[in-house]
Amino acid sequence: MNGKSMKLVAASVGAGALIAGGALTVATSSSAEPSTPGPVPTEEATIGETTTETVAPETPTTSSAVPPIEGPAALPPEQQDAL
User: Fold this and answer.
1) Structural element, H or E, at residue 26
2) 3-state DSSP call for residue 2?
């Protein structure tokens, strides 16, 4: 096969694949509308028994975080000469 006929065959195969993909999409897609949800209940919200009402403390109950070491860490031996 020469170059022109090879391009024609490749274009035909590509067009056929495009048409087949479109046909498959149309065949598998459904046009039915989704069902509408039922009525929403309008009852008042109730407070369950697990609800507790407390007052927030005046001061925080946690302490601030303090690192266990201070200052920069020592460099590894292979990086000591980099300074």
Assistant:
1) helix 3-28
2) coil
